[in-house]
Design a protein that fits this description.
Elements (H helix, E strand, L loop, with lengths): L8 E10 L2 E8 L4 E7 L8 H15 L9 E7 L2 E7 L3 E3 H8 L4 H22 L11 E4 L4 E3 L4 H9 L16 H4 L7 H17 L1
Antiparallel strand pairs: 1-2, 2-3, 3-5, 4-5, 6-7, 7-8
Length: 207
């Protein structure tokens, strides 16, 4: 199948696919740089208020500048397709690392979790952003060893867009979700991410 087309970008390869969309590796033609593009599921949005909400939330996420957070460069809508343009991180996810090695050493696990905690603390302190989907597959180890959290701010953007249509839409991955997230509580805060990070730490050290 041919890759999807977005003007201004040359799609190179599909990097992954999940409940929150498809991620492509692409070249941004104007700046001749490699980026990652996350294309959101088409079912999430179809009217102008969605577009405004999507762009407002994305702008908030793009203001986050931290070495432990994958940077969002742009967010746009083209022919009804919603997408984020993000920093491309050439590395591997902690999920992949786990699948290769079964479990991490105590030292490795603490290093990863400490880095994620710092990034989340910054996001909450700066923009009151809650990730809502902390898990090994959303944490990337860059080629220089930097631990980076992916998809920060995406949970809020997607839930905001889908709020009018599906009032009880719950974002997250069941194994790592806090009880208040499972029950669909709208007023989530940083403690929700702490719970998920604790579940992730347990998973990292026990396999």
């Amino acid at each position: 199948a041919l890759p999807m087309q977005l003007s201004g970008y040359e799609m190179i390869e599909k990097l992954g696919e999940g409940g929150r969309g498809v991620v492509w590796k692409a070249r941004q033609i104007s700046l001749d740089r490699i980026v990652a593009i996350k294309v959101l599921p088409a079912r999430l949005a179809n009217d102008s208020s969605d577009v405004q909400m999507f762009q407002a939330e994305a702008q908030m996420a793009a203001k986050l500048k931290h070495p432990g957070i994958v940077q969002i460069h742009d967010a746009n809508v083209e022919n009804g397709t919603y997408f984020f343009v993000m920093e491309y991180v050439a590395g591997y996810t902690v999920g992949n690392w786990m699948r290769r090695s079964g479990a991490l050493s105590e030292e490795q696990a603490l290093l990863v979790v400490d880095s994620v905690a710092n990034a989340l603390d910054y996001a909450w302190g700066t923009a009151r952003l809650v990730h809502c989907d902390i898990k090994p597959d959303n944490v990337i180890i860059d080629t220089d060893g930097t631990v980076k959290v992916a998809d920060l701010g995406l949970a809020r953007t997607i839930s905001a867009m889908s709020a009018q249509k599906v009032p009880t839409m719950i974002m997250g991955t069941p194994s790592y979700m806090a009880p208040e997230q499972v029950t669909g509580d709208a007023a989530l805060d940083c403690r929700t991410d702490m719970y998920s990070l604790g579940a992730m730490l347990y998973h990292l050290v026990t396999g």
